[in-house]
Amino acid sequence: MFSQTTEYALRAMACLALYPDQLVATGTLAQMTKVPSNYLAKVLQQLGGAGFIEGRRGVGGGYKLARSAGDINLVQIINAVGRLKRIESCPLGLENHGTRLCPLHRTMDRASALLIDMLKDVSLQDLIGDSQNPTKPLCDRQTMATLSVRGAPAKN
Amino acid sequence: MFSQTTEYALRAMACLALYPDQLVATGTLAQMTKVPSNYLAKVLQQLGGAGFIEGRRGVGGGYKLARSAGDINLVQIINAVGRLKRIESCPLGLENHGTRLCPLHRTMDRASALLIDMLKDVSLQDLIGDSQNPTKPLCDRQTMATLSVRGAPAKN
Questions:
Q1: Shortest alpha-carbon distance between residue B73 and chain A (Å)
Q2: SS3 assignment, position A63
């Protein structure tokens, strides 16, 4: 359901949220998110364009969140690289459907509304600080141990 | 949220459902769904491969539903051309996440579950025979009038 790009954007944002206020090297980001470097560069560019991350690309480059993880919800991340919006008028431009929509697009709109309602209530912080689920996104056992000791990403 | 291909597949299926047991010409399908012919041909091939439609492509070709519109739900159509499935194990293959998933993928799985639950209860028939919403998918006023008189698609 979620596109590859959306999945990758969520991984990248989760990775940066794990290391707040630190510039995470692009190599480390690629390694932890398991996203091919070229693809990741495009995703990071979109996230930067939307104002969610700041930093610089290329060798020696790195990124960090531009705002607090608690202030970014999942709908915002998804919309930075894709589209999770209500359907406001007939996508075929049919006058008699207008903004009331036919049963097909009304159903698709209802599905979008359901998803938006759920995901706008989940912040990036919720994903990395869930007390009910101590597993952290992207982190194997070794990374979890490093995080709890130093909180610093490996240099790359 | 839904991909272009998913949107087009739903339109094509709705169009065929409007004319049950009739071979709808590919030109008519393209015209009513407003989908570019080449793109539509690929979508129809996928829908045929999944066993939802039958017919033949090319000049003089046409398609019809291979089963009753009441027996096809929207999750099935979406999965014929894309992917709307639960997340059953860590997409990154991390052992410590396994099938329990981290908070990121558990949230994405919860979103998928919500959508599947909603859309599996909507059949193709529900979209074209909704008594609460007499507007038919893809149909402008003129097509609605033709449908109510003859039920036959224009030849093309």
A1: 12
A2: strand
pTM metric for this prediction: 0.89
Residue B70 lies in a domain: yes
- Interchain contact, A137 vs B105, CB within 8 Å: yes
- Condensed to tens digits (0 to 9), the pLDDT of residues A64-123 reads 999 999 999 999 999 999 999 999 999 999 988 989 999 999 999 999 999 999 999 999
Distance CA B24, CA B59 (A): 12
Q: Which domain holds residue A72?
A: 4-149
Disruptive mutation site among A87, A135, A142 for chain B (greatest number of B CBs within 10 Å): A135
ipTM of this predicted complex?
0.91
**Cα gap B44→A72, rounded to integer Å:** 39
Q: Do A127 and B107 touch (CB under 8 A)?
A: yes
How many domains in chain A? 1
Q: What is the C-alpha separation between A96 and A100, in angstroms, rounded?
A: 9
Taking CB atoms and an 8 Å cutoff, what residues of chain A touch B29?
none
Give the CATH number, domain containing residue B39.
1.10.10.10
Residue A11 lies in a domain: yes
